[in-house]
Amino acid sequence: MVPGSNPGICRYYQPGDIIFGSIGSQSIILSSPKAFDQQPPQTLSEESIVVTKNYQHTLALVFAINEINENPKILPNVTLGFHMYDIYSSAAFTYHATMKLLSTRDRFIPNYKCDFQDNLISVIGGLHSETSHHIANVLSIYKIPQMVPNDSIQFLGILQLLIHFKWIWIGFIADDNEKVEMFLQHMLPLLSQSGICLAFVETCLQNLSFDDENGDIIKKGVELFDRVMSITANALVCYGEADSIIFLRWVLYLPEVEYTTQMPRGIVWILTAQIEFKTLSYQRDWDIQAFHGAISFSIHSNEVQGFREFLQGRNPSSTTDDGFIRDFWGQAFGCVFPSSALDDVVGDICTGDESLENLPGPIFEMSMTGHSYCIYNAVYAVAHALHMLSSTSKHRTMAEGERKKLQRNQPWQVHNFLKQGLFNNSAGDVVSFDQNRVLVAGFDIVNWVTFPNKSFVRVKVGNIHLKAPSEDQAISIKEDAIVWHRCFNETHPISVCTDSCFPGYSKKKKEGEPFCCYDCFPCPEERISDKNDMAECFQYQEDHYPSKDKKTCIPKLVTFLSYEEPLGISLATAALSCSLITALVLGIFAKHYDTPIVKANNRSLSYILLISLLFCFLSALLFIGRPEKVMCLLRQTAFAIIFSVAVSCMLAKTLTVVLAFMATKPGSRVRKWVGRKLSTSVVISCSFIQTAICITWLAISPPFPNVGKHSMPNEIVLECNEGSSTMFFCALGYMGFLALASFTVAFHARKLPDSFNEAKFITFSMLGFCSVWFSFVPTYLSSKGKYTVAVQIFSILASSSGVMGCIFSPKCYVIVIKPHLNKRELLISKNFK
Fold first, then answer.
1. Torsion over CA: 372, 376, 377, 379 (sign)
2. Which structural domain, as residue segments, surrounds residue 533?
3. Do residue 738 and residue 718 come from a single domain?
4. Rounded distance between C-alpha atoms, residue 1 and residue 8, angstroms
């Protein structure tokens, strides 16, 4: 099993007779099925530096072997043991140790075995991917292949994490260029599709020696620190190995030794599952608050029953078969063991009674980490594979001959059983592998909470599900459980290149900048944006209008000039009132039809004029209410014809007065034109022309109900479309022509005797009529919606009232108020004395 470049996915070599593993700078050997006693490894030199956190991985291996040896149901009559080699994180030592596994015991003769032999079955590789690759280069020759790591699940988790928190402006740091290329190859297209871009990409120079005489390591470290702290991205993905945190801690320590003037700031560190929170002995007093609130991925792990008690029982006094414990103990507790070879002991004396539980997390953890959990499951997986292989024999209890038979099995035989492995470990988790011999296990999402005393705790705040129905459901996070860095004031951090463009604005990319960097521009007219960071403002529907801030579409109010609103009520009341007055005048004239003032200027024309004015006032009611088809057909045509009749009566009255006075002159030939025939002909002919215009209008392009969505910005206007605007203005123009003709004739006849002459009143009435309708045209064209209708109603009422007032109010005054003046003698004497 190789928790190398991706410890979250356990990878197995082809099984053999020995399991070999590299833990940090330590190598571990597990032999099977030949029974070996536990052999202490070679003691580390006094100058070596132990990564104390890695010691738990060794103990997880020992704990798993002890459990298997004590369980008679797994491998009865077989005792597992182990040897350990140190590879010193060196490729040469790694190859050497791997070749020793393939040699005769205690003799380095590759490809040649004699005497007492060990047959390699399976290998546990090192924590570093490079170490695992070196091992695979040798083992693959002997058909003990190593599976290629599968980082796709972890990459998917990183992507979904960034999407969940809307971190679209991120930094990326990797251990080496190979990891940078791998990450960019797999992730860059996915990041771009999700609207996420990289603020910077850096490489941690772990391969540089800390003993660099030229100071390159300091220079590179300062450059990395300044780059990280000066960038605006608050989220930083770190893709590294198990010991990468050691180098990062050194980089973050540079300001304390005044190598840089750049001030540190809070960052959300997003760490891959390979990275463990560990420290070297000289770093134990360094502040770890920079990693407060970090989020890391970890292979799914659980608390293994009995493991904590197993750790609590480890101490230099009671553990005599552990060659690592004294070196671990001394560096973990910062003490030394007295030696007879040394007279003076510098430093605190190790008593052996120190408690592992008092060590801070970066030094040692009592809970089984994801790496150790993976090693624990790896040992059990191989043991169960061997158990299934042994079960294929005829006798379940193996004698010495069967034990030798099992030892002679080829690696791929055990490997086939390994692929079928499915068992429950002591922690209650199901351990299984897919067809590619990759451990089927998800990831835990862990929040690091640090404390001033240099300790920390891991808080599980979510996980990645392998069998989620869709990618966007692959991750679940308890956001309320996350503790963020203190500089974010315990609130959800934001990591963007540019502040969000709020609704009502759209993004515009900045030239020469990544696509995450943009400017915000307000939406143009007739366009809105209803979400943050929209690339473009969009056109709203026709039956909606934008709010003032261009954020939302508001449904337009459907309007028309109705009887239920004040304007409609006022106009309808005015129309009915004028109609009632006209009817009253008509009644007065009918009652006093035989009086001189009624007979003057053609009594019949007066009646026709009053009736047409009555219908003029009533025609205004056709313009009020919801437009219907019949109403639209009638309103303009009825108005045009009725008004033409009224104006024609005015013209006929004026012509009658003029011709009457001309006929009184001796020898006048005009006398034959005076009479009812003339007035009737004028009214009929003038009205007929207007009627012909209206019929042509209805035949060519009649008015129809229309829904006006664009005439008013915030309203949908129900209106009557005039059909042909040309015909509408022809009808209106003809009516104006009649009014001008009446005005002209009346103006010339204004000085004729009053008893027979209405010319003065007709002049004033036509002057008012023309003024109203001449001002109507520009007002009508400039008004919108229901106010267009209101303008026409007002013009109808105003012009009709002007005619009514000018022509009939003087006569009604005489008839009703001054009846004694309504005598022929008085009228004649008044005008001809």
1. positive
2. 505-555
3. yes
4. 11
Residues 693 and 713 in one domain: yes
189 vs 551: CA distance, rounded Å: 32
Residue partners of 404: CB distance under 8 A and separation at least 6: none
Q: Give me the half-sphere count of Cα atoms (radius 13 Å) on the Cβ side of residue 732.
A: 19
pLDDT in tens, 293-305: 999 998 888 889 9
State the Cα–Cα distance between residues 293 and 486, nearest whole angstrom: 8
Query: 465-474: per-residue pLDDT in tens?
Result: 777 667 667 7
C-alpha span between 708 and 135 (Å, rounded): 80
Q: What is the DSSP letter of 410?
A: -
For residues 714 and 545, the answer to whether their CB atoms sit within 8 Å is yes
Report the first-to-last Cα separation within the chain, whole angstroms.
138
CATH number of the domain at 769, please.
1.20.1070.10
- Whether residue 678 is found in the same domain as residue 792: yes
Does 576 reside within a domain? yes
pLDDT at 8: 28
Per mean pLDDT, which range of 146-155, 367-376, 584-593 is the poorest?
A: 146-155
Q: Which of 523, 555, 587 is the last residue of a domain?
A: 555
| Residue among 280, 371, 315, 316 nearest 61 (CA) | 371
| Pairwise CA distance, residues 244 & 223, whole Å | 17
Tokens of 93: 């030592």
What is the torsional sign of CA 370, 315, 74, 402?
positive
Residue identified by tokens 């309007």 is 559
Q: How far is residue 15 from each of residues 171, 386, 403, 736, measured CA to CA in Å?
A: 41, 9, 17, 109
Non-local (6+) Cβ contacts of 447 within 8 A are 293, 294, 295, 458, 459, 460, 461, 481, 482, 483
Query: Which tokens is 696 given?
Result: 């042509």
594 and 698 belong to one structural domain: yes
How many domains would you assign to the chain?
3
Residue type, position 235, single letter: A
State pLDDT tens for residues 77-116. Answer: 777 777 777 777 778 888 888 887 777 767 777 777 665 5
Residues 613 and 738 in one domain: yes
Residue 418 has which token pair? 């390994």
405 domain-assigned: yes
* d(C-alpha 683, C-alpha 605), whole Å: 9
- Is 380 in contact with 58 (CB distance < 8 Å)? no
688 and 713 share a domain?
yes
Cross-strand pairs, 81? 31
Determine which of 60-69, 144-153, 590-599, 817-826 has the lowest per-residue pLDDT on average: 144-153
Closest to 617 (Cα-Cα) out of 595, 585, 657: 585
Domain boundary among 426, 442, 462: 426
Whether 420 and 522 map to the same domain: the answer is no
Residue 182, CB half-sphere, CA atoms under 13 Å: how many?
18
Amino acid at 422: L
Asked whether residue 551 is domain-assigned, the answer is yes
Nearest to 288 by CA among 121, 57, 448: 448
Tokens of 775: 């001002």
**∠ Cα 754 758 759 (to 5°):** 105
Residue 230 maps to a domain: no
| CA-to-CA separations, 120 to 2, 100, 620, in angstroms, rounded | 16, 11, 107
- Kindly write down the DSSP assignment for every residue of 41-108, as one continuous string: PPPPPTT----GGGHHHHHHHHHHHHHHHT-TTTSTT---EEE----TT-HHHHHHHHHHHTS-TT--
Tokens 């919801």: give the residue. Answer: 626
How do beta strands 81-83 and 26-31 pair? antiparallel
Give the number of C-alpha atoms closer than 13 A to the C-alpha of residue 783, restricted to the C-beta side.
Answer: 14
Q: Which H or E run contains 328? A: helix 325-333
3-state SS track over 203-246: ECCCCCCCCCCCCHHHHHHHHHHHHHHHCCCCEEEEECCCCHHH
Contact 123, 144 (CB under 8 A): yes
Q: Which helix (H) or strand (E) holds 146?
A: none
Backbone angles phi, psi at 676, to 5 degrees: -70, -30
